[in-house]
Amino acid sequence: MTYEGVLTKMKTEITDKVQYYLVFDSDFLNLNQLLDRKVSINFLRYQCLNCGLEKKIFRQGFCFDCFNEIPQAGEWIMKPELSRAHLDEEDRDLEFEKRAQLQPHIVYLANSSNVKVGVTRKEQIPTRWIDQGAHEAIEIVEVPNRYLAGITEVALKDHVSDKTNWRKMLTNDIKDLNLVEEREKLKDFIPDEAKEYYIASNKETEIEFPVLEFPKKIKTLNLGKNPFYEGVLKGIKGQYLIFEDGTVFNVRGHEGFVVEFNIL
Ligand SMILES: [Zn+2]
Questions:
Q1: Residue 63 CA, ligand 1 centroid: distance in Å
Q2: 0.90 cut: is pTM over it?
Q3: Same domain, 82 and 195
Q4: Which Pfam families match (predicted)?
Q5: Whole-number Å distance between alpha carbons of 130 and 238
Q6: How far is the CA of 49 from the centre of ligand 1 (A)?
Q7: How far is ligand 1, taken at its centre, from the CA of residue 177, in Å?
Q8: How far is CA 176 from CA 16, 42, 181, in A?
Q9: How far is the CA of 51 from the centre of ligand 1 (A)?
């Protein structure tokens, strides 16, 4: 079986374990069914997710020009504290920014290898946690816009990490923590503007990933450098495919790459 198309991040849903899908233009593929099967990935060409042109991908699936122009790649995406739509101020496209920023956002703690703080739109929960490979997570505040979430995250970063150690996440070098307690410790550091949005009580969400075997040592597959790979799929965690030989493939990191995906 051969599938061909441009890679976008894997779609997910939670049943007892996370179900992962590769979605192509005319087809989709449930990857959980491919565990223990040999597959190959062949990089064919680039295709920018915005302009569709065959231009080298710069970041987030976009070519350099699109990344620097389109509202979907504004700086406030990665740095929510730079959001300005609540002040009616435009970055690249005010209508787009209002739709994206002026909606409920969550500041959360997620544990994928260490506890980190993060921000997401409310509708992206639990998707965001799955994408990060978090085995447990909990909400801290629910605020009405992205700016308030951003300044809360910045304030909490002084007391908890904002990075995932993806090597530890992929080798399953993880600890279970009591996130209710971790959350409690941070309460006093929430900025005044956001204090009223503290979620009074809630519990951890636990997430189970479909992994048969975790690698001890990992090597990353970069299709830009090595355009062909084949191996036996042993697991899926975060946005990574994990193979028997310790190779890991970041699907999200290859958005905009057109590939041929073969099930051997
Ligand atoms: Zn483009």
A1: 4
A2: yes
A3: yes
A4: DUF2797
A5: 5
A6: 7
A7: 42
A8: 19, 37, 12
A9: 4
The phi and psi torsions of 246 (rounded to 5 degrees) equal 90, 0
pLDDT digits (tens, 9 = 90+) for 26-71: 889 999 999 999 999 999 999 999 999 999 999 999 999 999 999 9
Q: For residues 160 and 136, what is the distance between their CA atoms, to the nearest angstrom?
A: 16
Domain boundary among 190, 206, 222: 206
Ligand 1 (single-atom ion) residues, CB below 5 Å = 48, 50-51, 63, 66
Q: Do 244 and 161 belong together in one domain?
A: no
Distance 43 CA to ligand 1 centre (A): 18
Q: How far is the CA of 62 from the centre of ligand 1 (A)?
A: 5
Instruction: Give residue for tokens 């493939």.
Output: 249
Going by DSSP bridges, is the β-strand pair 228-237/240-243 parallel, antiparallel, or unpaired? antiparallel
136-193 pLDDT, tens digit per residue, is 999 999 999 999 999 999 999 999 998 889 999 999 999 899 999 999 999 999 999 9
Overall domain count for the chain? 2
Same domain? For 111 and 233 the reply is: no
Q: Same domain for 196 and 84?
A: yes
